[in-house]
Design a protein that fits this description.
Order of helices and strands of chain A: EEEHEEHEHHHEHEEE
Largest sheet of chain B: none
Distance between the termini of chain A: 21 Å
Oligomer: heterodimer
Strand order of the largest sheet of chain A: 6-7-8-3-9-10
Helix content of chain B: over 70%
Strand content of chain A: 25-35%
Number of strands of chain A: 10
Chain lengths: ~230, ~140
Amino acid sequence: MSMVVIVRHLWKYYIALGSSIAILKDVNLLVKRGEIIGIHGPSGAGKTTLLKILAGLERPDSGEVIVEGYNLNLLDDEGLALLRTSIVSYIPQDYGLIDEFTVYENIEIPLLLIGLPERERRNSIYNILDYMGLRDKEKIKVKYLSGGEKQRVSIARSLVITPSLLLADEPTANLDWDNAKKVLELFNKINKDFKTTIIIVSHDTRVLEFVTRRFVLYDGILKEVEI
Amino acid sequence: MLREIVLKSFRYSLSRTGMHYIIIFSITSYIYLCMYRSVLVFIVMLFLSILMVVASILSDRRDVIQFISVFHLVGARRKILFMTITIFILPRFFSISIAYSIAMISSPSMLPLIFSIHIIAALILSLIIVKGIML
């Protein structure tokens, strides 16, 4: 089975009050194609930073990060942007949607960036809206949707480019458990239907019931735990 | 692709509250400039216009940051981000510039002075704002 993510000896520092603090300490991670990885840890443990590095939104201070064979250290900003329109999709905790845009318009953004013609864009968007059960919401502005619906729109926007790696940052943090469960079941369905590799980070241990491999990130140190 | 993004950014900018303030301000500026024709009034109004543009951008700050963040998140290149910010900001200057231009037609003697000051100020300000947002 091929590796989608290879992280070796990753270190990341932040400067706080003039001194440098290590947020990620010698992180090593191998993710195989088709896996659902769950990373659990308390707030401030470095979960979001790790995910942002994998998405090419932040750069590591040292160490190697390889996603789908691309060494992210060797890519410039344009290369990392290209990676996010083709291979990696990142779902932020706050959904990362434009409130004043409709569901359709939000999902359309990545397709505009890759320059897809209008007819193909429309087909792709309707396919994904049908898959996510959001067809009846296409003309509704995102600001009028519930948290669960916003999360589904965010996932739909991520899926519309059919990425091989999906990164979800605290996908259940703003949801009640019923809605959270639906979102996690949706990730499992996506994993089966699209063969998408998924990495979920969460401070909620219940999320770990829905993954194939579990890790704990505590104080910048990543450790695998047995299921 | 670029045309669609330009149109989306332009429409989004026009629909923001700050832009509505700018349009109202432009109309009132035009009326004021037509009623009181003097260099001093022109310069004071110019200063107020610049403040108004800054205020309008600050009032829409959350929206512009959200807009740019989402584009960045889904993989927009730096050139596209720069373009969307510029399109977001420029209509605000255009709106006031149109009001000035119409008002200046009736006072051609002041045109070179006011026009050059306005253009230089607008360019400097837009560069500062764009650079600030990009950082």
